[in-house]
Amino acid sequence: MSQNDNKKVLIALDYDDRQAALNFVKQLSPSECRLKVGKEMFTYFGPEFVKELVALGFDVFLDLKFHDIPNTVAKAVTAAAELGVWMVNVHASGGFEMMQKAKEALAKYGENAPMLIAVTVLTSMDQGQLLRLGIEKTPQDQVVYLAKLAQEAGLDGVVCSAQEAHLLKSQLGDSFKLVTPGIRPAGSDAGDQKRIMTPQKAVAAGSDYLVIGRPITQASDPVATLQEINASIA
Ligand SMILES: O=c1ccn([C@@H]2O[C@H](COP(=O)(O)O)[C@@H](O)[C@H]2O)c(=O)[nH]1
After folding, report:
1. Which residue's CA is the closest to the ligand 1 atom numbered 13?
2. Is 60 helix (H, G, I), strand (E, B) or coil?
3. Which reactions fall under this protein's catalytic activity (predicted)?
4. Pick from 134, 127, 101: which is nearest to 116 by CA?
5. CA distances for 61 relative to 35, 40, 208, angstroms
6. Which of 13, 33, 81, 87 could be a cystine partner for 61, CB 3.0 to 4.6 Å?
């Protein structure tokens, strides 16, 4: 399994058309990016699609954000490991025991275990949305709180916004991986994302991996856009 940290871009393949996604993927090289499969493509096209990407040589982040009782989540991350994915995630708000059991379930895969990370506060959420959930902390404080819980449970990192990256690196150390969606090259549409940052600023702030979907996949030339982003953060 590749651990090449110079390959920071994880492309969010959010397509409702399997062939369109594969046509795009076939123009890419596993040496220039990793791929993320989320709820939309997994629900349409299932584990076979994930296996196809793995067979093409790509590191695949299976972004299904498991959130359930510990036993169920432990079995779900085991199923992800069986697909050969590079990274899988759970929601930190599923709790300490859930995260710990998920990590324990992957131990039997040794060095072939996927990285296990936890979602803290979705990048589409701001202070107002947290308040509506009854959470009175700022997004930043809630992210730090959940990230510390995830680290204590033995996870490899978290999903957060790049806006929290500098603080998390200073409090949790460099080896705890930060995977940051909500990446928007200057001038691109934020869409539903609230806590955003440009690729260059995200890397400077300490993001290990940049999750980028629409700014690449909906660009007029997605391959050229990926190459421009890679050049900008090299
Ligand atoms: O907090 C989170 C967690 C996951 N995501 C996912 O990342 C991509 C972002 O896509 P864009 O098109 O670049 O907005 C998408 O698949 C989300 O499900 C996130 O955005 N925020």
Report:
1. 213
2. strand
3. orotidine 5'-phosphate + H(+) = UMP + CO2
4. 101
5. 6, 14, 14
6. 87
